[in-house]
Amino acid sequence: MTTKITYTLQGDYLLPDLKLPEQPKVEIGIWGKRHLRYLEKHHPIIYTNLLTSCKLTAYLADIDKQAEDMFFRLVNQLAKQEGVTEQLKSENQMLWVRKMNNIRNRAEEIVNDGIIYQ
């Protein structure tokens, strides 16, 4: 199998036209996108290695799934632990909303610290 290399003139230099193979189309959620921004900014070598080896999309999809599972598990555990139930929701909606917002914020911080910004 032969590959034909093409070049483009940039100033006085001929540079090869390099293209990465197509990566699979996978929907990346908010957790995966956050981790992507973190990698680009703080770990550019890891980002470049994943990108050039065509593993970035699969890696981000895996991170997204792990983070989402952890987030929902934490929200459910904390709500159960603190007695935030559907009964409380029907009796005092504002208290339920305050408690659930607090729980979701804590769970998000735990996921960010444990998975996203690692």
From TrEMBL:
Top-rank taxon, per record: Bacteria
UniProt protein name: TnpV protein
Organism: Ruminococcus bovis
Phylogenetic classification of the source organism: Bacteria, Bacillati, Bacillota, Clostridia, Eubacteriales
